[in-house]
Amino acid sequence: MNPPPAMDMPIMHDSDRYDFVRDIGSGNFGVARLMRDKHTKELVAVKYIERGDKIDENVKREIINHRSLRHPNIVRFKEVILTPTHLAIVMEYASGGEMFDRISRAGRFTEDEARFFFQQLISGVSYCHSMQVCHRDLKLENTLLDGDPALHLKICDFGYSKSSVLHSQPKSTVGTPAYIAPEVLLKQEYDGKVADVWSCGVTLYVMLVGSYPFEDPDNPKDFRKTIQRVLSVQYSVPDFVQISPECREVISRIFVFDPAERITIPEILKNEWFLKNLPADLVNEKLTDNQFEEPDQPMQSMDTIMQIISEATVPAAGSYLDQFMPDNDTDDDMDDMDSDYELDVDSSGEIVYAI
Question: Where on the tree of life does the source sit, at the highest rank (predicted)?
Answer without folding.
Answer: Eukaryota
